[in-house]
Amino acid sequence: MSGTSGTKNVGEAISGPAVARPRPTAPAVQTPVPAAPGTDLGTHEVTNQPPPLAGFDPLACDPALVDAVEREGAGGALPTLALLGEKVASEEFREHARLANENSPVLRTHDRYGRRIDEVEFHPSWHALMGLSVGWGLHAAPWQAAPGTGAHVARAAGFYLVSQLEQGHCCPISMTYASVPALRHDPALAASFEPGLTARMYQPGLARPGSKTGLLVGMSMTEKQGGSDVRAGSTVATPSDDGTYRLTGHKWFTSAPMNDLFLTLAQAPRGLTCFVLPRVLPDGSRNAIRLQRLKDKLGNRSNASAELEYDDAVGWRLGEEGRGVVTIIEMVSMTRLDCVLGSAGTIRAALSEAAHHVAHRSAFGERLADQP
Ligand SMILES: Cc1cc2nc3c(=O)[nH]c(=O)nc-3n(C[C@H](O)[C@H](O)[C@H](O)COP(=O)(O)OP(=O)(O)OC[C@H]3O[C@@H](n4cnc5c(N)ncnc54)[C@H](O)[C@@H]3O)c2cc1C
User: Fold this and answer.
1) Would residue 220 count as lying in a domain?
2) Average pLDDT of every residue of the chain
3) Residues in a beta bridge with 245
4) In sequence order, what are the residues at sequence separation of 6 or more whose Cβ sits closer than 8 angstroms to the Cβ of residue 156?
5) What is the three-class DSSP state of 110?
6) Nearest protein Cα to ligand 1, atom 14
7) What is the total count of domains within the chain?
8) CATH number at residue 278
């Protein structure tokens, strides 16, 4: 076919030669009115069911939270916390929370051409939730604030609020927050990554960390033979001439594997050591971190957790050789503090649901809330 006269270019072949067409006029945009659910079902009428819980004010309903924020020196953050609370209680974000959990992330190890990509696809609602929390600064943003400004208290209150909305996405948010004290063991690494970690910009997708405005961090410790007992780790780190290390081994439970950087434990010549592994190397190539499969978890379903292997993956040492636990424990313990906030938020969400239910449901002629 090549060289035949009159060959059309691809655009022409699809759309034909350019002709003047009348321009369509844009219709006026109206706000759609959602259809009300049907209550007369023919066989019976739906009554005595509560309306969906949305549109309440989680700060106004929670004077203990407001008191705590003021008492701990973060009262100035209450107006922005109220805006976050509005989102948390909105129909829009409650629907995002449902969708992100009903559409679990999917692992793509290879692209359609057989090339290795090791990526995880998420539902758009996951990205909406991440955008909300990063945009507010619930990830590492408080580390940028001057001491004594209440930034960490305000962030704790915000984390407690979003935990009432959706817990899975709180995992990468928490790990990113927690990574900064550990990263500061190496001022050079901290200087290169902290601006990206503290930026209020959610930028999903694998890319060279230096080319991204916003970064997220995970932690990779648990192996098949040891979870609590991380010293049983068998991943080996071999020093390279350029000062980096090459890691070979596996991890059995690494959450949020699409994050940009991972703090990882491996056995270096002088013992268990902490390393920083970027998913993408400075030259733009993918680090040899192979995602094997995703965990089929009981809860935390919106969030991906991966089993992975390092096949000569490149890592930068963080802290001294043999002091891996001492280094990474700074990150681990901060995530455990967030587990307390997250658990408190989850309990609060359950209480809100229960209070709403008993306010609208009747039994034996009285609202449940009015029953003894
Ligand atoms: C949702 C989710 C996300 C996770 N994300 C990550 C992640 O991002 N990165 C990561 O590295 N890991 C992750 N993990 C793994 C997690 O950190 C480990 O499961 C955890 O450390 C426990 O290890 P294990 O499951 O091997 O249990 P084991 O260590 O085998 O413990 C089994 C039981 O024994 C108890 N036990 C252990 N040691 C002692 C002791 N000395 N005395 C008394 N009792 C003891 C434990 O409390 C537990 O009840 C995740 C797990 C879950 C469920």
Assistant:
1) yes
2) 94
3) 239, 315
4) 341
5) strand
6) 253
7) 1
8) 2.40.110.20
